[in-house]
Amino acid sequence: MVFLGGCDLNTKMSTFDTKGPIAETQLDLFMLTVWVTTFIFIVVGGVFVVAIVKFRERPNDDRPMPSQGHGNPLVEIGLIGASVLLLVIIAVPTLQAIWYTHDTPTDEHSKLGNWYPGDDLAEGSEDEVLVIRVIGYQWWWEFEYPQLGISTANEMVIPAGKAVHLELRSVDVIHSFWLPRIAGKVDLIPGRANAMWIQAGDNIEAWTEKNGAKGSELELQAAYNKYLEEEIHDYYYGQCAEYCGDSHARMLFRATVVGDDDFAAWVDSERVGHTAPDGMAWDEWYKIYDSKPESLTGDLNEGAKVFMGRGKCIACHSVEGNPRALGVAGPNLTNVGERLSIAAGWLNHHTEEDVLIEEEQYANFVKWIKETDVVKPGNLMWKANGNGIGELTDPDNPEQLKLLTDEEIHYLARYLQSLK
Amino acid sequence: MSTVTETPAPSTHTEDKHVLKPERSNLGLMRPDHNKSVLIDWLTTVDHKKIGIMYGAIALFFLLVGGVEALIIRTQLAFPENDLISAQRYNQLFTMHGTTMIFLAIMPLNAAFFNFLVPLQIGARDVAFPRINSFSLWAFVAGALVINFGWVLQAVEVMGLFSASGPTAGMNDFVPSMGWFGYAPITGIEFTGAGTDFWIMGLQILGVASLSAAMNFVVTIINMRAPGMKMMRLPVFTWMTLVVSLLIVFAFPAITIALAQLMFDRTFGTSFFVTAGGGQPILWQHLFWIFGHPEVYILVLPAMGIVSEVLPTFSKKPLFGYAIVVFSGAVIGFLGFAVWSHHMFTTGLGKVATAAFSLLTMAIAVPTGVKIFNWVGTLWGGRVRFAPPMIFALGFVWMFMMGGFSGIMHASAPADAQQQDSYFVIAHFHYVAIGGIFLAVVSGIYFWLPKIVGKMWKGKLSIWVAIFSTVGLNITFFPMHFLGLLGMPRRTHTYLEGFGWETYNLVCTIGSYILAFGIFLLVVDIIRCVRSGEPAGNDPWDARTLEWETTSPPQVYNFGRTPVIAARDALWEHKHGPENRRITYEEDDGHGIHMPSQSWMPMIASLGFVPLGLGLSLMQAGIPYMGYVAIFGLFMIALGVALWAIEGPGGYHLHPEEEK
Fold first, then answer.
1. Residues B187-211: tens digit of each pLDDT
2. What is the dihedral of CA B82, B87, B93, B94, to 10 degrees?
């Protein structure tokens, strides 16, 4: 097993590289079970090996027949007692952890009113922690922030060091929310209101205690902020963990953990959404679009026309700010140009340092629009459009819409890239 | 039913039975007794030994099928973003791999051992209900056909001879693709096609087969023991058969109900599991696992029974703590019904239920640990001989321990939240299933095949089987612990590069081919033994239990005269024990041995399940006239059962003493 020992355990979805109290509790418990079972393994396995070696038959063995004893009650009761004892060592912290990981804490640091810089919270939510409604679809994720009135898809943004309450819902089959470095999984089951809480990074008390940090309140706060920025602010990888049909393997998601101010800024930009191309107001743009669309020129205008028109994108997708893009069957595309991945985390366009690469983003948009069924077999965008939007269509299938030309897809990709 | 313990009714059919030619049944038809055609003889047999051999042969076939499915899965996963097979095909393969291995390979392999060994171990002539035994076998075959029928359709479609359009448009996927535990609502009509229907009907039929076999064995073990074979003198394997049979009787009704509800949801539009109609998908998980967890013990307890026979034989010592091994087997069986929700720790059970199932799951580790302690205790102070069965039994103890340890890790619910539905779980249950059950079954094959075919193993190929299968198993499944902990979810047909999973996956795939080669060598070794082994003699291993007292292979009537048992480990005591513990034999009463007549009817009745199952499945998919096929199947079952009842028990007498 030497070759395994050399492998890196700090990978993108490693449960060893914990970045939050829940994953840490779960890892501690796991390691406890590892030590206890390793101890049993060494003792029992050792006796087993000794027995095999010591009592093996030798050539020309003329020792007398082994004693035909049927057992020893004292030895057996002793062993049962010992195993019960070893299990209690695991059982007590297990119970503590079950209680700890189940109920969302409502500590002062996590209450929205105490950290969210904006003044536009839904009424009564100052004393609540941030709530995100996670909704599973075949095969993507919707993340709704009911207290903030926004909704995004596949890439959630959460504040560092704060408890976040997740309401887990599914509209079709069972999915499971798994963000390994932050928390173990909980299932999204249709007809059932599941919930969990997650937290990226410790809060300041836990951090102070753990590190034995000393100093004035200000110094501590500064050191704590530094810890959050250096160790916790990051781009985390998650994936659906319950088999949910054809493209289960391609139902990934991301969580971007940011500081309070960045979080508020992100919420603002989600709320404002996007203007029409060239900074035009939507009313004005639609007026032209409805009367003489040919006068809207340039890549982005062409793309926007496909998005509103022949692409039928708005039937399923919404974009904040755009009064006609109100579809709800597909992911919300507000700020989709900012996301580092599309197609539920399958098509990525960023560097190792999580910097967006525009050419790859463009190529991914084109690939996704043209080959939705290749990227994600069985998905709704493919099925609902009579098997495809792009031109790589099946000539024998008259029901298939030959919707978009390569040129139109090029414009559409450029337009989507501009949504940021 | 005609059995040894019943006095045959004084009718015309029981006179002069030593004239061995077939007779007419009450229907006026010839009974297929003493048939010259080997085929007819095997198809109509009611002999538990032949039935056992058929279970074993069919199970080995499905073991290879499931193995090939696994190899395709592993090949697909060897590299990131591999596109050897499509997502849909991959999903079909892992579903059928699980279903095949559990229901069509391990369970019938266990049934093969039950059938062949239990009557011999308890000194009986046959099981209590020989014709029900035949019915169980053919019902199992019918279920296997129905479950796998989708592959036939899929093959026909791939060859371009058939496509799902027009009246067959409802059959958008033919092979089950919802995982072997078929969680609702993905089994619903809007998410999966005809494959799910084949799966439902196939499992339902297999349930009939398992239930009828289980009841047969409960009755056999309780009622058919030879004089002096008290319960606490039963060989441990027979004890485990009894526990497993009771588990089947109590566990299968849960899945029978669940499958019936699911079938109603799909075929008749009910809403047991459909949220929109007020149903609850989570209900399926409870019903399934209340069956599914005992099922785990249904698979593993016979393996423990095999090992509990092999270890004492090759240590020349009685099993350490016989009573406590038997008792812990029963406790495992009982507690097995109280831990089902540990499969559901991530479904949001709530704190108290999670805690309760967590603690109960830890509790079940105690009787399991007791067994391991007692096996080690059996070796201690013995004389350990590394014969082929022993090598695999020792391997079992070692590998099963590994699987048990990861089981304890799952028992801790918060830790399980990271492990559930990841490759860690795959590693866990394959250590139990291959490292545990499979190695024990191979040990059992090496131990009992000389008894079954009367020939001894040739050469030392068994060593290579052991090396390749254990090395392969560890290379395949040990890295999966790490894969799971590094975040790879199970049931994913491919994965992206850059998550640290590439090396592990490639290693796993290489390991799976090594393991497959080990299994290939096993098949070669079995064929060599059966074709050209030297005669084995009655007792080639200096064994301990009653089956080694009779000839190899045993005569159709098992024992010429009923043995009278005076001790546990009857044969060992007979050979090495004091005078008062020897086996004696009942006096010959001059009537000979009453043998049951062979019959076509059990097979006709159970093969009626094929048109019934296929008809109902295809009817659901919208194929015309399939309802009539289903009705025809029902009629065939009813006819088989009715004729079976009317033809009468029959039977004839053999006089083994005279033949000598």
1. 998 898 889 999 999 999 999 999 9
2. 90
Cβ contact A362:A417 at 8 Å:
yes
**3-state SS string over B250-294?**
HHHHHHHHHHHHHHHHHHHCCCCCCHHHCCCHHHHHHHHHHHHHH
- Cβ separation A70–B318 shorter than 8 A: yes
Distance CA A246, CA A173 (A): 12
What confidence score (pLDDT) does residue B166 get?
60
- Residue contact A190–B91, C-beta within 8 A: no
Q: For chain B, what percent of residues have pLDDT higher than 90?
A: 83
Residue B86 contacts residue A377 (beta carbons within 8 Å)? yes
CA distance, residue A274 to nearest chain B CA (Å): 32
B120, B561, B658 from B584: Cα distances, Å: 16, 9, 20
Beta bridge partners of B210: none
Give every CB contact of residue A19 below 8 A, 6+ residues apart in sequence.
Answer: A181, A182, A200, A201, A231, A232, A234, A236, A257
How far is the CA of A338 from the CAs of A306, A370, B407, in angstroms?
20, 21, 43
**A230–chain B Cβ distance below 8 A for any pair:** no
For chain A, where do the domains classified as CATH 2.60.40.420 start and end?
Answer: 10-49+75-259
Q: Alpha-carbon Rg of chain B, whole angstroms?
A: 25
Packing angle, helices B439-453 and B48-76, rounded to 10: 150
Chain A, 172-191: which have a CB under 8 Å from a chain B CB? 172-174, 176, 178, 180, 183-187, 189-191
Residues 6+ apart with CB under 8 A from B55: B108, B109, B111, B112, B115, B137, B140
What is the ipTM, given to two decimal places?
0.93
- In angstroms, the separation between the Cα of residue A408 and the nearest Cα of chain B is 29
Closest CA to B633 of B142, B53, B37: B142
| Residue of B259, B3, B245 lying closest to B124 (CA atoms) | B3
Lowest mean pLDDT among A22-26, A58-62, A266-270: A58-62
Q: What mean pLDDT comes out for the span A60-82?
A: 84
DSSP character at residue B106 = I
A12, A36, A66: residue with CB nearest B498: A12
Residue-averaged pLDDT of chain B: 91
CB contact under 8 A, B362 and A174: no
Q: Which fold has domain A273-417?
A: Cytochrome Bc1 Complex; Chain D, domain 2 (1.10.760)
**Worst-scoring range by mean pLDDT, A375-384, B130-139, B154-163, B586-595?**
B154-163
* Cα nearest neighbour of B369 on chain A: A83
Q: Is A71's CB within 8 Å of B374's CB? A: yes
| pLDDT, tens digit, 9 for 90 and up, residues B18-60 | 456 777 887 878 888 888 889 999 999 999 999 999 999 999 9
For A:233-252, CB contacts with B below 8 A are: 237, 239-250, 252
The verdict on domain A10-49+75-259 having CATH code 2.60.40.420 is: yes
Number of A/B CB contacts below 8 angstroms equals 302
* Model confidence pLDDT, tens digit, residues B79-111: 999 999 999 999 999 999 999 999 999 999 999
DSSP string, A39-54: HHHHHHHHHHHHHHHH
Reported as a single tens digit per residue, the pLDDT across B530-560 is 999 999 999 999 999 999 999 999 999 999 8
SS3 A166: strand
Q: What is the mean pLDDT of residues B452-464?
A: 94
Output the pLDDT for position B660: 41
Q: What residue ranges of chain A are covered by domains with CATH 1.10.760.10?
A: 273-417
Look at residue B17 and tell me whether its pLDDT is greater than 60.
no
